[in-house]
Amino acid sequence: MTTRTGGVGDPGGFGGFEPQDRAGPYAHAANSVAGIMIRVMAALTPATLAGIYLFGWPALNLFVITILTAVVTEAACLALGGRPVLPALSDGSAVLTGWLLALSLPAWAPWWIGVTGAVIALTFGKHMFGGLGQNPFNPAMVARVALLISFPVPMTLYVAPAPMFSAGAPGFLDGLAVTFWGVVDGGGVDGVTAASPLGHIKTELSRGVPVAETMAAAVDPAGLAFGMIPGSLGESSALLLALGGLILLWRGVISWAVPVALLASLGAIATIAHTLDPGRHADATVHLLAGATMLGAFFIATDPVTSPVTRQGQLLFGVGCGVLVWVIRSFAGYPEGMAFAILLMNAVTPLIDRGSRPRVHGRTRGGEPLTRRTKAKP
Amino acid sequence: MKLFRIRGGVDVEHRKELSSEQAIRVMAPPSRLHVPLQQHAGVSADPVVAPGDRVLKGDLLAQPQGAVSAPIHAPTSGVVLEICERMAPHPSGLSVRSIELEPDGEDRWGACLPPIEDPFTADPAVITARVAEAGVVGLGGAAFPTAVKLGLGARTPIDTLVINGAECEPYLTCDDRLMREQAGEVIDGVRIIAYTLKVRDIRIAIESNKPQALEAMTRAVGAIEADHDGRIVVVAIPTRYPMGSERHLVQLITGHEIPARRLPADVGVAVHNVATARAIRHAVRLGRPLVSRVVTVSGGAVRRPMNLEVPFGTLVSDLLEACDGLAEDPPARLLAGGPMMGQPLPDREVPVIKGIGGVLALSWGEIHDGPSHPCIRCGTCVSVCPCGLVPFEMVQYVRHDRLDDAAALGVRDCVGCGSCAYACPSHIPLAQYFHYAKGRLNAEDRDRRKHELMKRLAEGRTARMEKVARAKREALAKRKAAAAAKKAAEAAKAAEAAKAPAAGDAGAA
Q: pTM of the entire structure?
């Protein structure tokens, strides 16, 4: 009745057997893994184009290099593992991982940051655990954190936006110089390095300047919303990222639970803290619009592989991310904490999943068959 | 009417428009019928005819054997050619004993059974017996002998009768057409069921995507309201697969959650299908046994989809021919039943039997087939599962042959609706894994029960032997004791006797 195929050559991706006795259904919804990935990429496109426009050729170079490396690494890992390369490559997951990683890097980061990050994401973040669906941590965030800890200087070197083709923006060749020779200021390049808003607030606070004052002087909410701020390639335009997120919600690619819980908890806790001590804590606008909040809430924390599967689990996960982000931003050494928060919550996802399994029809929560006539809720 | 909440389900592409506007057409018997003796759940029927016998439509061909079985009647008039093994309409392609019948073309009814003129004054037991005699089985797909279910009413108190007209399987329109065209007959059958079960609360559930059926049934109920003492309500239920699943329909309509591994009767509910109700009416009022049913022939590969009233034993190939053949040949899938829970047909030369409500020939374009990919834990399967299971976790255990762990997560409670597999973006054949796991677990359960029975018997025997041995020992001991006592008594007597003469001697002296 069954055959053991074992090994890693089976299309399912793991060892085990495929039952031979057929059972339905014999029709399928018109969906696929590749379809999901493509929709996510489509939703990321507006913010990505905006980022590339704002930060010019070096951003485009970094974007292309990161994604190419991700695809090549995925192919290499699959080949080394003796698995069919093309079917797995065509699901688009490697491109998406590279894409998300690129968006989380400083826009003018040198080429080797993109390459190292993509290799880390695909090997340590994904294939070491067995490939797609098996990794406990979000690969792009694993890579970002590894880079941040290993190469703190290039990973926090932000430049002010210099829109493509505008005066002062690097041309194509200057862009290559930025990406491949690490020239930020000099030659034909005239990059203005600057701190990201969250970094600026943190630095000023450590110098004794109250948050409210820094915000009034240097943080412009409209800049945060439209991305006219120094920051990572794709993190800067909160509005476009939120737009992409709403598209994903509308198309049913992600559920509302994670982003709503994350944004609501972060907004609530930031508002409370700001009300209690405005000198020490930034308000909800900054927390929601700055840094990786929108990217994290809609595109990273919603990664199905590393987040819980049930509604209750997702709500808990989202709240956990929101609270941790605020705690890390407010009290830890780093100005931004989205990547850390998501990775920490990834670690407890199996536990959340175990605790939030639905009740089986006709049984009690403990798994015993119902004994009395039970009326359901209307 | 208030409906209760049930979880999960999927919005399937229902494609009913292919055949929903085709009125039911009575199909003339083909040149040869192949009538299997097993068309129902339970034990197969035993033939009572021999090759060469002339039979009329409705004559008994085979009688039931055992408590759960059903008789088989001649679908048309003609001559019995032979009784032989033929391929069954089952994916295994195994053969089943069948009666080959050559129709004479007259399609003449035989004497049939005496009609029960007024069923509402008859003894419910008489009606149940009639339904059994007429070979009526559940026409919703399970083909469970209906009389057995009607008999339940005598044992368990039933307070609600749910009539299943949901027809949630995509493509199928046979129940829809029946309700639109013969609502009066269906309602009459429903009333007979209710009378037999002594139920006064009757709900007829129809998915909201069948407005004409809803209207026709509501009108038919209105027409009989005057002389009916119970309450019949036609309920429009949401169009969502698997609304027609018995457990979930009962919960939706009555709010009762059937405990795991129990039946609707355990919460005081009986569920019957609309086509079954009509078959019951024919058996009771007209004395006509079940010899045909409405079958939807549809799918993208069929040239002219139709709803046909088909005599049992008609080959699938005859059905397809009646629909002008296939536009895509071979089709991507040839199925008996709907695409969600139907079964693939091993061949076109297999007959239509009582449980088959649809024959589908699906084209490649409509099945969205694709190779399976690794699970991405998206949780779609969890959110669509109407049983509250975690398919993506269960499948890992089944894959690694850890069936006990899969059972602990509730794989036995899976109703096999296939919603998870339908919706899975990775195209993992989840339902297939669970089907396999349930089969293995059932076999293991049977083995375990057998083992336990053997153990109990062996222990009983040991205990009995021990008892016998003990009794023997005790008897022996008793005998020994008795013997010893006797001996002692004798010794004492002897001693006394020895003493007595001495005393006498002394006295004498």
A: 0.85
